[in-house]
Design a protein that fits this description.
The chain has 355 residues and is an alpha+beta fold. It has 3 domains: 2-92, Tetratricopeptide repeat domain (Serine Threonine Protein Phosphatase 5, Tetratricopeptide repeat); 97-174, Ribosomal protein L7/L12, C-terminal domain/Adaptor protein ClpS (Ribosomal Protein L30, Chain: A, 2-Layer Sandwich); 179-309 and 330-338, no CATH class. The protein has 13 helices and 10 strands. It has helices at residues 2-10, 14-27, 32-44, 48-61, 65-93, 115-126, 130-136, 150-162, 172-176, 285-299, 309-314, 320-323, 339-354, and strands at 102-107, 143-149, 167-171, 179-188, 193-198, 204-209, 216-231, 237-254, 259-264, 304-306. A 7-stranded mixed sheet has the order 6-5-4-9-8-7-10, sandwiched between helices. Helix 2 (14-27) runs antiparallel to helix 3 and helix 6 (115-126) packs across helix 7 (130-136). The chain is elongated, with a radius of gyration of 29 Å. The protein starts with a helix and ends with a helix.
């Protein structure tokens, strides 16, 4: 009867082949040749996962060289089919005129108990080894997983999301459309809030809003680099760049106005506007800044505080192809350019877009 199955496959009469195999599976369910044709039937029927499972089982259990060879060829065909499907799907995603803009794909944190299964799915979707996939899955905070064109990242992102891997993707055009206002100080906290601030054209003015408009509070530390002289292992003087301190930044998101209010410790004028905390000669900028943050948090008890900027930044500081598209809107005096400023802008804007 197996010869009739082979003949049916040669004639592409898969209906007859299916009927014959159904009978053979009752009579000889463990026959490797029967299983091989079952795998082929799954393959021609578009049931690729089932076909792969059968072929891999034959590779593990069969000692017949011809069957092992046929199973291996079957897996090769499935790989080629998957590549064609992937190529067509990406081409379809690229049909949108906006699909060619630069974009990012972000992986969100996943519990350690779910990582093993998630890593296998990530490996299969992205065609990488499971060990590399597991290392790519973050446990805390976001990770910039890939940059590229929006259409392609949308394709991968949808596959990952449908596989239960938390992620999101966005084009950088949307990120760069968000306005950033540099807050000098708050002038009024009565019925509404008045922030004295500069717009992106460095024009000074006031923005009046209500606390209920704020949807996120984003904190971040941006390093201050200084060139220092130190001794190397041989006792010789050498110059190197070190982190000496940090600037403290805080963004308030107002999505209804498509804008971010940005404050930082050395830029906020604590001697003007509403007194946030008792001022005296012993107050340092850090004490005043902490008092300002505490005050903002009391006014925004229901708003989520985002403070995982540093681990996110560390995953993307070398992604200059992405960061060069980001205008940081951070006006610090720096002797040399650094990726940290654009990284904070991207982090804050991704939160803005995600929410």
């Amino acid at each position: 009867m197996i010869d009739k199955v082979a003949s049916a496959f040669e004639n592409k009469d898969y209906v007859t082949a299916a009927k014959l195999l159904k009978q053979l599976l009752k009579e000889s369910p463990d026959n490797p040749l029967v299983q091989l044709y079952v795998g082929k039937l799954h393959e021609v029927s578009g049931k690729y996962e089932k076909a792969e499972k059968v072929y891999r089982q034959l590779l593990r259990d069969s000692t017949n060289t011809k069957i092992v060879t046929q199973a291996r060829l079957g897996l090769q065909r499935l790989t080629q089919i998957e590549q064609h499907i992937r190529k067509d799907a990406i081409a379809s995603s690229m049909s949108d005129p906006d699909s060619k803009e630069t974009a990012v794909l972000i992986l969100e944190p996943i519990g350690s108990e779910l990582k093993k299964e998630a890593a296998q799915k990530l490996a299969q979707i992205m065609q990488i080894d499971p060990y590399t996939a597991r290392l790519s899955l973050p446990s805390r905070g976001w990770r910039l997983y890939r940059s590229g064109v929006l259409g392609e990242l949308k394709f991968y992102g949808e596959q990952l999301y449908n596989a239960g891997i938390p992620c999101f993707w966005t084009g950088l055009t949307q990120v760069n459309k968000i306005e950033v206002f540099q807050v000098h100080y708050f002038k009024d906290f009565t019925t509404k809030v008045t922030a004295v601030c500069e717009n992106q054209d460095k024009q000074l003015g006031s923005l009046v809003f209500e606390w209920s408009e704020v949807t996120a509070l984003v904190q971040g530390l941006l390093p201050i680099f200084e060139e220092v002289v130190d001794l190397d292992s041989r006792g010789k003087l050498q110059r190197k760049t070190q982190t000496q301190d940090y600037f403290h930044f805080c963004d308030l998101h107002l999505p209804k106005r498509n804008c971010i209010l940005r404050l930082y410790d050395n830029g906020y004028k604590f001697d003007k506007g509403v007194a946030i905390s008792p001022q005296n000669n012993h107050n340092t900028i850090r004490i005043s800044w902490n008092g300002l943050l505490d005050f903002l948090k009391t006014k925004l008890p229901q708003v989520k505080i985002w403070s995982d900027f540093t681990p996110f930044a560390e995953t993307m500081l070398d992604q200059t192809d992405v960061l060069q598209h980001i205008k940081s809107h951070i006006h610090l005096f720096r002797r040399e350019q650094t990726s940290w400023d654009a990284a904070f802008q991207l982090y804050s804007c991704l939160i803005f877009v995600k929410q």
